[in-house]
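Bug #77: duplicate submission created two jobs. Keeping one. Sequence:
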Amino acid sequence: MHDDEYGRDNRRLIGLITLVVVLSLIGGVGYGAYSFLNEDDPSSTASAKPSGSATGTPLEQTPRNAARRFLEEWAAGNWKGAGGLTDDATRASDALVSFNEGLHITRRALTVGQPGPELPGGGGVPVPFEARMTVGSAGEWSYAGALLVAKGKAGAQLTEGYLVTWAPSVLHPELAADTRLKLTPNQGGADGSVLRAKDGTELSVTEHPALREIQAGLLSKAKPGEAAKDGGVITLVSAGTGAPVKEIATIGEVQTAAPEDGGIRTTLDADLQTAAERAIKGESRTSALAAVRISTGEIVAVANNPAGGFNTAFQGKTQPGSTFKIVTAATLLDKGAVRLDDKVGCPESANAGGMTFTNSEGRSFPDGTFKLAFAQSCNTTMANLQAKLGGGDLSTFAHDYFGIGGDWKTGIVSFDGRVPSASTDTMKAADMIGQGEVQMNPLTMASVVATAKSGTFRQPHLAPDQAGLWRAPRTLSPTVSGQLRTLMKAVVTEGTARGALAGLSGDVGAKTGTAEVGGGKPNNGWMVAYRGDIAVAVWVEGGITGGQSAGPIVKSFLGAAG
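Kept job's structure:
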């Protein structure tokens, strides 16, 4: 049974809203839309962005301006806008997202050059450009590229003019359809024996490949809490196997030796780290897990599948689905907008700002309490309660009590969550069920669980003596924290996690989630939970439902946390 998806009737519309929001936000902070103006080219003036164009708007009528507009959108992080200026909008947009995320690019500066002569037979006009990227914590990377611009038609949105001819080499001259670029930040000793668990146990990346990215990030520091040093290698690898093909660039000074003291002490728990890797290894889909110690904020385990891929657990930016209802419930309870035993109902459908929200498989509990609605993950209940909150209430509460969007110092590069203010009732309702504009990852959601249970935000961190930990301005009241524990236990005893976590003894609470991603792609599966002093969050790409996909991983991991 699905635990919290949108109803089938409104999936497509919500998915489209979500996709537009996500595509406009992925990729961190850009340099902005550079003007690329050239005093020797009077025609090189800024043009309207394609994302706002009306039917019949002309494309650029010179190759250089067509290239300039594409580079502007790329620099600004507008993947959809840039893709729309090519002859293959969908592939171009998807490739831009992958390029940016794969290299962890946080800033882009792209400068257009002077076009060359047109190729024979109307083959297009080559336009060179210079790229300058900030690549994760490694530093600055510069390279020269070239676009091929030719006359074409963009369809209903834009009339005939010049378009960038799409090919993977548009992004970098070495790229092809069967390759991708990968960033390897500062690495440690060749034997990989540089990480140690909190108790001193050696954590070799040979035995724990899931820790390779953690090792790389921690080794780029001289002392716990300091900012990462520059350095890393960009490698061309096989898109299918990840096997290295060619070294493309070396950034900064690459570290090649392990620390003289023989290792870096971390907050990781050796047994829980092993349990995390074992639990996630059996999942064939891309997935991630993060776990923290509730009483301290110490990160005790992290795992990504595939192990050598993107560190989704720390750096992912994706919608958490109904797992975010923990924060929503806390906000409503704190404001006195609802009580656990209030009969708020869980109707088949509800309207918010002109949009209809439904529950999966037509579920409804007309006389259901708020506790039951939370346990059964009723979207319609939250949609009906959206009027109880102002547009900025959820955003402010998430930041002030749960630390979301704070300046975290985890020990390596991380994304600390995003919950913006809602501009409409529809978006407010979508945000309340973990869709809309909310962006999280397993680490931030594990922290949400820890905060809910203890009442106090303790910033997740990897070093035992980590400096500069961010502190949330406020703590949850004992009443609200106790109510959240009651709600999360109900999810296990009578709600959507009952089957998945059956048999786990002790103090256990959870919340399931299924996140719409749009574009016809299958939903992502989520589950967050606690057992005793350990909080964990698991995300499975294309997992459909949280209980079915993330649930077994959570149960396997928490089985070792008793």
